[in-house]
Protein backbone atom coordinates (compact mmCIF):
# COMPACT_ATOMS: atom_id res chain seq x y z
CA UNK A 1 0.00 0.00 0.00
CA UNK A 2 2.87 2.37 0.78
CA UNK A 3 4.25 1.84 -2.74
CA UNK A 4 0.89 2.73 -4.26
CA UNK A 5 0.74 5.85 -2.11
CA UNK A 6 4.18 6.95 -3.31
CA UNK A 7 3.27 6.35 -6.97
CA UNK A 8 0.01 8.26 -6.50
CA UNK A 9 1.95 11.21 -5.08
CA UNK A 10 4.12 11.25 -8.21
CA UNK A 11 0.97 11.15 -10.34
CA UNK A 12 -0.47 14.14 -8.45
CA UNK A 13 2.74 16.07 -9.09
CA UNK A 14 2.36 15.37 -12.82
CA UNK A 15 -1.22 16.65 -12.64
CA UNK A 16 0.05 19.84 -10.97
CA UNK A 17 2.49 20.35 -13.84
CA UNK A 18 -0.22 19.67 -16.42
CA UNK A 19 -2.69 22.14 -14.89
CA UNK A 20 0.02 24.77 -14.31
CA UNK A 21 1.00 24.66 -17.99
CA UNK A 22 -2.62 24.84 -19.14
CA UNK A 23 -3.18 27.89 -16.91
CA UNK A 24 -0.04 29.60 -18.19
CA UNK A 25 1.79 29.43 -14.85
CA UNK A 26 4.58 27.48 -16.56
CA UNK A 27 6.08 28.63 -19.86
CA UNK A 28 8.20 26.76 -22.40
CA UNK A 29 11.18 28.89 -21.34
CA UNK A 30 10.68 27.77 -17.75
CA UNK A 31 10.44 24.16 -18.94
CA UNK A 32 13.82 24.44 -20.61
CA UNK A 33 15.34 25.96 -17.48
CA UNK A 34 13.79 23.33 -15.20
CA UNK A 35 14.96 20.53 -17.49
CA UNK A 36 18.48 21.94 -17.49
CA UNK A 37 18.50 22.41 -13.71
CA UNK A 38 17.21 18.91 -12.97
CA UNK A 39 19.61 17.11 -15.31
CA UNK A 40 22.66 19.26 -14.58
CA UNK A 41 22.23 20.08 -10.87
CA UNK A 42 19.40 18.38 -8.94
CA UNK A 43 19.84 14.78 -10.14
CA UNK A 44 23.66 14.89 -9.87
CA UNK A 45 23.27 16.26 -6.31
CA UNK A 46 20.83 13.44 -5.48
CA UNK A 47 23.20 10.83 -6.90
CA UNK A 48 26.29 12.17 -5.10
CA UNK A 49 24.51 12.50 -1.75
CA UNK A 50 23.10 8.97 -2.08
CA UNK A 51 26.37 7.35 -3.15
CA UNK A 52 28.37 9.13 -0.46
CA UNK A 53 25.94 8.07 2.28
CA UNK A 54 27.29 4.53 2.44
CA UNK A 55 30.60 3.20 3.65
CA UNK A 56 32.51 0.81 1.45
CA UNK A 57 31.74 -2.87 1.97
CA UNK A 58 32.64 -5.89 -0.13
CA UNK A 59 28.98 -6.87 -0.29
CA UNK A 60 27.94 -3.50 -1.70
CA UNK A 61 30.78 -3.60 -4.25
CA UNK A 62 29.75 -7.08 -5.41
CA UNK A 63 26.12 -6.00 -5.73
CA UNK A 64 27.19 -2.92 -7.68
CA UNK A 65 29.23 -4.98 -10.13
CA UNK A 66 26.38 -7.46 -10.54
CA UNK A 67 23.91 -4.65 -11.26
CA UNK A 68 26.14 -3.18 -13.97
CA UNK A 69 26.38 -6.61 -15.62
CA UNK A 70 22.61 -7.07 -15.33
CA UNK A 71 22.12 -3.63 -16.89
CA UNK A 72 24.32 -4.57 -19.86
CA UNK A 73 22.40 -7.83 -20.27
CA UNK A 74 19.04 -6.01 -20.15
CA UNK A 75 20.14 -3.56 -22.83
CA UNK A 76 21.36 -6.45 -24.99
CA UNK A 77 17.99 -8.17 -24.56
CA UNK A 78 16.10 -4.97 -25.38
CA UNK A 79 18.16 -4.37 -28.53
CA UNK A 80 17.46 -7.93 -29.69
CA UNK A 81 13.73 -7.44 -29.11
CA UNK A 82 13.85 -4.06 -30.87
CA UNK A 83 15.26 -5.77 -33.96
CA UNK A 84 11.97 -7.65 -34.42
CA UNK A 85 9.63 -4.74 -33.63
CA UNK A 86 9.48 -3.30 -37.18
CA UNK A 87 8.50 -6.61 -38.77
CA UNK A 88 5.93 -7.41 -36.06
CA UNK A 89 4.28 -3.98 -36.27
CA UNK A 90 4.80 -3.80 -40.05
CA UNK A 91 6.48 -0.42 -40.00
CA UNK A 92 9.41 1.06 -41.88
CA UNK A 93 11.25 4.31 -42.43
CA UNK A 94 11.35 6.83 -39.60
CA UNK A 95 8.61 4.99 -37.67
CA UNK A 96 10.91 1.96 -37.57
CA UNK A 97 13.68 4.06 -36.04
CA UNK A 98 11.45 5.61 -33.36
CA UNK A 99 9.87 2.33 -32.31
CA UNK A 100 13.26 0.64 -32.02
CA UNK A 101 14.56 3.50 -29.91
CA UNK A 102 11.59 3.52 -27.52
CA UNK A 103 11.86 -0.25 -27.07
CA UNK A 104 15.37 0.10 -25.67
CA UNK A 105 15.47 3.39 -23.75
CA UNK A 106 13.36 4.19 -20.70
CA UNK A 107 13.07 7.43 -18.73
CA UNK A 108 15.81 6.68 -16.21
CA UNK A 109 16.32 10.30 -15.17
CA UNK A 110 13.07 12.20 -14.85
CA UNK A 111 11.07 9.16 -13.66
CA UNK A 112 13.50 6.35 -12.88
CA UNK A 113 15.31 7.94 -9.95
CA UNK A 114 12.20 9.54 -8.42
CA UNK A 115 10.25 6.24 -8.51
CA UNK A 116 13.16 4.24 -7.11
CA UNK A 117 13.66 6.89 -4.44
CA UNK A 118 9.97 6.74 -3.54
CA UNK A 119 10.04 2.94 -3.16
CA UNK A 120 13.54 2.12 -1.91
CA UNK A 121 14.84 5.43 -0.57
CA UNK A 122 18.46 6.61 -0.77
CA UNK A 123 19.83 3.08 -0.85
CA UNK A 124 17.75 2.43 -3.95
CA UNK A 125 19.11 5.57 -5.63
CA UNK A 126 22.62 4.38 -4.72
CA UNK A 127 22.18 1.13 -6.64
CA UNK A 128 20.08 2.70 -9.42
CA UNK A 129 22.87 5.17 -10.17
CA UNK A 130 25.32 2.32 -10.66
CA UNK A 131 22.80 0.27 -12.63
CA UNK A 132 22.36 3.21 -15.03
CA UNK A 133 26.08 3.51 -15.81
CA UNK A 134 25.77 1.74 -19.21
CA UNK A 135 22.85 3.97 -20.25
CA UNK A 136 24.89 6.80 -21.78
CA UNK A 137 27.22 4.46 -23.63
CA UNK A 138 24.29 2.63 -25.23
CA UNK A 139 22.36 5.86 -25.87
CA UNK A 140 25.20 7.59 -27.71
CA UNK A 141 26.13 4.55 -29.78
CA UNK A 142 23.11 2.38 -30.57
CA UNK A 143 20.61 5.21 -29.94
CA UNK A 144 22.38 7.66 -32.23
CA UNK A 145 22.86 4.99 -34.89
CA UNK A 146 19.11 4.26 -34.93
CA UNK A 147 17.84 7.85 -34.93
CA UNK A 148 20.40 9.15 -37.42
CA UNK A 149 19.43 6.75 -40.23
CA UNK A 150 17.63 9.49 -42.24
CA UNK A 151 20.73 11.69 -42.16
CA UNK A 152 22.99 8.75 -42.92
CA UNK A 153 20.87 7.92 -45.97
CA UNK A 154 21.40 11.51 -47.13
CA UNK A 155 25.10 11.10 -46.35
CA UNK A 156 24.88 14.10 -44.03
CA UNK A 157 27.30 14.73 -41.17
CA UNK A 158 25.66 13.11 -38.15
CA UNK A 159 28.26 12.84 -35.47
CA UNK A 160 31.65 14.48 -35.56
CA UNK A 161 33.70 15.68 -38.51
CA UNK A 162 35.24 12.24 -38.93
CA UNK A 163 31.88 10.48 -39.09
CA UNK A 164 32.38 8.65 -35.80
CA UNK A 165 31.02 8.91 -32.28
CA UNK A 166 32.06 12.11 -30.52
CA UNK A 167 33.33 10.75 -27.22
CA UNK A 168 32.70 14.10 -25.54
CA UNK A 169 28.98 13.36 -25.81
CA UNK A 170 29.46 10.56 -23.29
CA UNK A 171 30.61 13.05 -20.67
CA UNK A 172 27.68 14.66 -18.88
CA UNK A 173 26.73 15.77 -15.35
CA UNK A 174 24.95 12.47 -14.66
CA UNK A 175 27.98 10.33 -15.50
CA UNK A 176 30.36 12.67 -13.67
CA UNK A 177 28.17 12.58 -10.54
CA UNK A 178 28.02 8.77 -10.57
CA UNK A 179 31.80 8.46 -10.91
CA UNK A 180 32.35 11.11 -8.22
CA UNK A 181 29.90 9.48 -5.84
CA UNK A 182 31.34 6.03 -6.49
CA UNK A 183 34.84 7.30 -5.66
CA UNK A 184 33.47 8.72 -2.39
CA UNK A 185 31.84 5.37 -1.66
CA UNK A 186 34.91 3.25 -2.44
CA UNK A 187 37.15 5.48 -0.31
CA UNK A 188 34.47 5.83 2.41
CA UNK A 189 34.93 9.60 2.16
CA UNK A 190 32.29 11.73 3.85
CA UNK A 191 31.35 15.15 2.56
CA UNK A 192 31.51 17.96 5.16
CA UNK A 193 28.21 18.24 7.04
CA UNK A 194 26.97 21.51 5.50
CA UNK A 195 28.01 20.39 1.98
CA UNK A 196 26.26 17.03 2.37
CA UNK A 197 23.10 18.73 3.67
CA UNK A 198 23.13 21.18 0.76
CA UNK A 199 23.49 18.33 -1.72
CA UNK A 200 20.61 16.47 -0.04
CA UNK A 201 18.36 19.53 -0.12
CA UNK A 202 19.11 20.24 -3.77
CA UNK A 203 18.72 16.56 -4.66
CA UNK A 204 15.34 16.40 -2.93
CA UNK A 205 13.99 18.90 -5.49
CA UNK A 206 14.62 16.49 -8.37
CA UNK A 207 11.47 14.42 -7.78
CA UNK A 208 8.86 17.22 -7.64
CA UNK A 209 10.54 19.23 -10.40
CA UNK A 210 10.82 16.16 -12.66
CA UNK A 211 7.18 15.22 -12.24
CA UNK A 212 5.93 18.80 -12.73
CA UNK A 213 8.12 19.05 -15.85
CA UNK A 214 6.62 15.86 -17.32
CA UNK A 215 3.10 17.12 -16.61
CA UNK A 216 3.79 20.41 -18.35
CA UNK A 217 5.22 18.62 -21.39
CA UNK A 218 2.14 16.40 -21.61
CA UNK A 219 -0.04 19.53 -21.61
CA UNK A 220 1.40 20.53 -25.01
CA UNK A 221 0.48 17.25 -26.73
CA UNK A 222 -2.56 17.01 -29.00
CA UNK A 223 -4.60 14.10 -27.67
CA UNK A 224 -6.62 13.52 -30.84
CA UNK A 225 -3.51 12.84 -32.92
CA UNK A 226 -2.15 10.30 -30.47
CA UNK A 227 -5.17 8.04 -30.23
CA UNK A 228 -5.19 7.67 -34.02
CA UNK A 229 -2.01 5.57 -33.88
CA UNK A 230 -2.72 2.25 -32.17
CA UNK A 231 0.81 0.98 -32.77
CA UNK A 232 2.10 3.45 -30.19
CA UNK A 233 0.02 1.68 -27.55
CA UNK A 234 1.40 -1.71 -28.61
CA UNK A 235 4.98 -0.44 -28.45
CA UNK A 236 4.29 1.24 -25.09
CA UNK A 237 2.92 -2.03 -23.68
CA UNK A 238 6.13 -3.73 -24.79
CA UNK A 239 8.17 -1.00 -23.08
CA UNK A 240 6.12 -0.89 -19.86
CA UNK A 241 5.06 -4.50 -19.27
CA UNK A 242 6.51 -7.17 -21.54
CA UNK A 243 10.23 -6.42 -21.19
CA UNK A 244 10.07 -5.70 -17.41
CA UNK A 245 8.20 -8.98 -16.81
CA UNK A 246 10.78 -10.89 -18.85
CA UNK A 247 13.58 -9.27 -16.84
CA UNK A 248 11.79 -10.09 -13.58
CA UNK A 249 11.26 -13.72 -14.56
CA UNK A 250 14.86 -14.25 -15.68
CA UNK A 251 16.41 -12.59 -12.61
CA UNK A 252 14.24 -14.57 -10.19
CA UNK A 253 15.01 -17.77 -12.06
CA UNK A 254 18.70 -16.98 -11.55
CA UNK A 255 18.15 -16.59 -7.80
CA UNK A 256 18.28 -12.80 -7.44
CA UNK A 257 16.09 -11.17 -4.80
CA UNK A 258 15.17 -7.80 -3.30
CA UNK A 259 16.67 -4.71 -4.92
CA UNK A 260 18.78 -6.88 -7.21
CA UNK A 261 15.48 -7.62 -8.97
CA UNK A 262 13.59 -4.46 -8.07
CA UNK A 263 16.07 -1.92 -9.46
CA UNK A 264 16.46 -3.49 -12.94
CA UNK A 265 12.73 -4.17 -13.24
CA UNK A 266 11.63 -0.68 -12.14
CA UNK A 267 14.13 1.10 -14.40
CA UNK A 268 13.09 -1.11 -17.31
CA UNK A 269 9.40 -0.44 -16.56
CA UNK A 270 9.74 3.33 -16.91
CA UNK A 271 8.06 5.08 -19.87
CA UNK A 272 9.91 6.16 -23.01
CA UNK A 273 12.99 8.29 -22.40
CA UNK A 274 12.08 11.98 -22.41
CA UNK A 275 15.10 12.77 -24.60
CA UNK A 276 13.65 10.65 -27.42
CA UNK A 277 11.93 13.70 -28.93
CA UNK A 278 14.98 15.92 -28.39
CA UNK A 279 17.37 13.49 -30.06
CA UNK A 280 14.89 12.81 -32.88
CA UNK A 281 14.93 16.52 -33.66
CA UNK A 282 18.72 16.66 -33.45
CA UNK A 283 19.19 13.77 -35.88
CA UNK A 284 16.45 14.60 -38.37
CA UNK A 285 13.96 11.90 -37.40
CA UNK A 286 10.20 11.93 -36.69
CA UNK A 287 10.08 14.00 -33.50
CA UNK A 288 6.27 14.20 -33.66
CA UNK A 289 5.97 10.42 -33.35
CA UNK A 290 8.67 10.49 -30.67
CA UNK A 291 6.71 13.07 -28.64
CA UNK A 292 3.52 11.04 -28.98
CA UNK A 293 5.33 7.93 -27.75
CA UNK A 294 6.62 9.78 -24.68
CA UNK A 295 3.11 11.04 -23.94
CA UNK A 296 1.30 7.69 -24.30
CA UNK A 297 3.87 5.67 -22.39
CA UNK A 298 3.97 8.23 -19.56
CA UNK A 299 0.18 8.22 -19.21
CA UNK A 300 0.00 4.40 -19.30
CA UNK A 301 2.83 4.16 -16.78
CA UNK A 302 0.58 5.68 -14.14
CA UNK A 303 -1.21 2.31 -14.14
CA UNK A 304 1.61 -0.07 -15.09
CA UNK A 305 4.26 1.11 -12.62
CA UNK A 306 2.10 0.39 -9.53
CA UNK A 307 1.19 -2.98 -11.05
CA UNK A 308 4.85 -3.89 -11.60
CA UNK A 309 5.80 -2.59 -8.14
CA UNK A 310 3.20 -4.82 -6.50
CA UNK A 311 4.84 -7.87 -8.10
CA UNK A 312 8.27 -7.12 -6.64
UniProtKB/TrEMBL annotation:
Compartments where found: Cell membrane
Annotated GO biological process: transmembrane transport
Superkingdom of origin: Bacteria
GO cellular component: plasma membrane
Topology versus the membrane: Multi-pass membrane protein
Assigned keywords, A-Z: Cell membrane, Membrane, Transmembrane, Transmembrane helix, Transport
Signal peptide (residue range): none
A Pfam short name: Mem_trans
InterPro entries: Mem_transp_PIN-like, Na+/solute_symporter_sf
Gene3D superfamilies: 1.20.1530.20
Transmembrane segments: 6-25, 37-56, 68-89, 101-120, 126-148, 169-187, 199-220, 232-255, 261-281, 293-311
Protein family according to the UniProt entry: Belongs to the auxin efflux carrier (TC 2.A.69) family.
Protein name according to UniProt: Transporter
Organism: Geosporobacter ferrireducens
Phylogenetic lineage: Bacteria, Bacillati, Bacillota, Clostridia, Peptostreptococcales
Amino acid sequence: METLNQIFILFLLIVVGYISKKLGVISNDMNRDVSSFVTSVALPALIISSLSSYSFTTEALVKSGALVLISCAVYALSICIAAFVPSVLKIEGSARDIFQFITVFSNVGFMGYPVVNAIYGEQGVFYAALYNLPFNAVLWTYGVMVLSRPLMEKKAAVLDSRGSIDLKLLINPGLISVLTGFCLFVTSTRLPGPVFSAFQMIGSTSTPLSMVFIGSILADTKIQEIFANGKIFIASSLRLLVIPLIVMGVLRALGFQGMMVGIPVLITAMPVAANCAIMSTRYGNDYHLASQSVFVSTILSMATIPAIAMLL
